[in-house]
Amino acid sequence: MITVTDEINKWKDVANKIWSRSLGIVLALLVGLGFGWAYGRGDIIEDCKYSGAFRVGSQAFTCLRKI
């Protein structure tokens, strides 16, 4: 007879196998997002410093400091 705890343990084992195989992919995704965020932020700061405006796609924004 199959009990609820047996089913839960079976699904837990399946989840652990999937997670263990995808850990590298998740870590690579997080590292890529971090580098992309830092690169994009650096571009905006440099554009604001020299030209006073920056572009995102086809939209242009001016850089105004609000205090």
User: Which whole number gives the mean pLDDT?
Assistant: 84
Helix content: over 70%
Structural class of the secondary structure composition? Answer: mainly alpha
Reported for the largest beta sheet, the result is: 2 strands, antiparallel
Along the chain, the helix and strand elements come as HEE
Indicate the overall shape: rod-shaped
Proportion in β-strands: 5-15%
> Main sheet: which strands, in order across?
1-2
Low-confidence parts lasting 5 or more residues at pLDDT below 50? none
Count of β-strands: 2
Tell me the count of domains. Answer: 1
> How would you describe the oligomerization state of the chains in this entry?
single chain
Radius of gyration: 23 Å
State the distance separating the first and last CA atoms.
Answer: 69 Å
DSSP helical segment count: 1
Structure write-up:
By secondary structure, this protein is mainly alpha-helical. The chain has one domain (4-62). Helices cover 72% and strands 12% of the residues. It contains one helix and two strands, in the order H-E-E. The chain has one helix at residues 4-51, and strands spanning 53-56, 59-62. Strand 1 and strand 2 form a beta hairpin.
